[in-house]
Amino acid sequence: MIPINLVFFFVIAIIFGVLITYKCTMMYARIYSQFCQGEDMYSFDSRIRYSEVDSNAVLTIESLIDYFQDCSTFQTQDGPATMEYLRSKGIAWVLNSWQIEIKRLPKLCEEVTTGTIPYMLKGPMGLRNFFMKTTEGEMLAVANSVWTLFDFEKGVPTRVTPEIIAAYPVEEKLEMEYLSRKIDIPDGDSRNGEEIPIRRHHLDTNNHVNNGQYIRMALESLPDKTLDVTHLRAEYKKQALLGDVLYPVVIRSNIGDNKVYTVSLNDKDKEAVCIVQIWA
């Protein structure tokens, strides 16, 4: 007969071995994940909120862009080149263009990971990818963006500083189709949308219209607001300020089998402030 104290010893040893095995497995899983995704890749986890979905309980495109913008802001605020640092130098990042590919928009309460990948810093330019994926690894959306570091005191682009280079480790860019940041106005049927006066809720910390607000304006200007959007592009040409008025011009065309709406948000002089192109 085996002594009870020896049985107790074997049980404790087995439990201890299981715990060690579990911890090692989790550690190697994290290492593998970092190896596959890049240990410097910046991301954050979230859950789709009721305030972020449409009438079908699906994440809105505007909220998707908010996630992307929040991700890059979180990375910036984690330092060393925070918004406060940039403001002290009289400089700021200005977004030139978006290119977004949407595979599927997540549903209410779905858990997601949003990440960003700076892949080039050169002179005054910064190129950055974004992605949103499920916790199971399903890629929901990917994006490319082009930025310029701008000196607002001198009114010219300026080179990235050592602090900025340290803040954004450069990695390999995502696999996606990379289009020109310039958007040509196509031929097609056009209509004028309702004029949009710029209110305080449109502004961001730089006191001009936030990049995502232009996307909201363009989507609201569409005659069909139930489109299943697969691609979205935006080219930012000027800054709109409090008290300005934007005049949307919507052009409908086709690219292959895709129905395409190009929305030019114009100023009072009929010059484009932002051009947004929506594929469905």
TrEMBL record:
Annotated transmembrane regions: 6-25
Domain Acyl-ACP thioesterase N-terminal hotdog: 44-168
SUPFAM superfamilies: Thioesterase/thiol ester dehydrase-isomerase
Pfam families (alphabetical): Acyl-ACP_TE, Acyl-ACP_TE_C
Residue intervals of the Acyl-ACP thioesterase-like C-terminal domain: 192-247
Family listed: Belongs to the acyl-ACP thioesterase family.
Name this protein carries in UniProt: Acyl-ACP thioesterase
Origin superkingdom: Bacteria
Keyword terms of this UniProt record: Fatty acid biosynthesis, Fatty acid metabolism, Hydrolase, Lipid biosynthesis, Lipid metabolism, Membrane, Transit peptide, Transmembrane, Transmembrane helix
Species of provenance: Butyrivibrio proteoclasticus (strain ATCC 51982 / DSM 14932 / B316)
GO MF term list: acyl carrier activity; fatty acyl-[ACP] hydrolase activity
